[in-house]
Write a structure and sequence with these properties.
The protein has helices at 19-22, 36-46, 58-62, 85-97, 117-124, 133-146, and strands at 3-7, 28-33, 51-55, 71-76, 99-110, 150-155, 161-167. By secondary structure, the protein is of the alpha/beta class. The longest helix has 14 residues, at 133-146. Keywords: Methyltransferase, Transferase.
Amino acid sequence: MPRILSIAAGHLREAELSIAFQERRIKEWVAVDQDSKSVEECHRRYCGSVVNPIRGSVRGFLAGKIGTGGFDFIYAAGLFDYLKDPVAKALVRKMCDMLNAEGVLLVANFADGLIDSGYMEAFMDWRLIYRKEQGIIGLFSEYCENAAINLHAFTDSWKAIIYCIAEKPH
């Protein structure tokens, strides 16, 4: 019965695809987002379930106002593209501290060299921070020097998104 934390959760649409969620094998799924409409949608969509929608920001996390820890899985799938390295590193450190032993952290970031970046910027006014695999691994470097964390980074098959998985040993 894992505890899960989603940062910048949006509408948490991935819950609908989760077999563990459907089979009620999750203790708690905390969905944090700074957008009040997304939090309201999570309340509406998952009312009465283990999903706990919370309105909050990166600043709130870093100040210790959100979440106490004890999570088995923490992920941020659409946030790090907006965070400059100093803030991203501080958030990684906080997220790792919130993990239980044997917990897993997943961070995603659009890849440097994304072929569609020009279109996204010109027509969608979507300006992101793109990273290479070493760049996303570098976000964990300071934390990993002081803690035993296993890191693995990989790019999706379209070379559009880089994923970094950090595993905290027992």
